Amino acid sequence: MKPKRITKHRYYLNIAKEVSRRSTCFRRSIGAIIIKDDQIISTGYVGAPRKTKDSFEHGICLRDKLNIPHGERYELCRSVHAEQNAIINAARAGVSLLGGDMYIYGSDYQSQTPIDAFPCFICKKMLINAGLKNVICSTEDGGMKMFKVSDWEKEWREKDIIDTENQYGKKQIETRESRRVKGKKE
Predict the structure, then answer these.
(1) pTM, 2 dp
(2) Where is 32: in which H helix or E strand?
(3) Which stretches of the chain drop beneath a pLDDT of 70?
(4) How far is CA 169 from the centre of its chain?
(5) How far apart are the first and last CA of the chain?
(6) d(C-alpha 120, C-alpha 127), whole Å
(7) Is 4 helix (H, G, I), strand (E, B) or coil?
(8) What are 115-141's pLDDT values in tens digits?
(9) Exposed e or buried b for every residue in 153-167, given b needs 16+ CB within 10 A?
(10) How many C-beta neighbours within 10 Å does residue 111 have?
(11) Cβ proximity of 45 and 104 under 8 Å
(12) Coil, strand or helix at 10
């Protein structure tokens, strides 16, 4: 009997999961890898810029300290996102990303439970400009979801970026809005 072999998608997502273990964020562990011609050409994880102190070294998450909810005010985060670091690392090595695919794995830092590791708006814009073709993300149910970058381009031409259905942090935002509305009714 032939042993069951995992799919290429699961294989690459598992590698992104291992990369995520290098993350230096108290909120999320995220890892990203870029594949081109069935070969890993770059990796990245959530972490502070090179030669600077990360949240672990500071001993605190600045966004937690400022009570900033998930999915908001990324400009106040010490870290560079995994997707951004994978793109930056490819550029540092002089590697073209055109036509490549990115795999992103994410989990909650404390519980290590999987999350919907969908890119934020800033990362989506970078992924479009980098010329990537597909983005395959882990989901909170342990599965995966594939996005075609050309669909983002088309959707944003017809609507706007805030109309995107799969937003990182959307569940937290909806929950917060639900509490506000509920609070107003009571």
Answers:
(1) 0.84
(2) strand 28-36
(3) 161-186
(4) 11
(5) 63
(6) 10
(7) coil
(8) 999 998 889 999 999 999 999 999 999
(9) eeebeeeeeeebeeb
(10) 8
(11) no
(12) helix
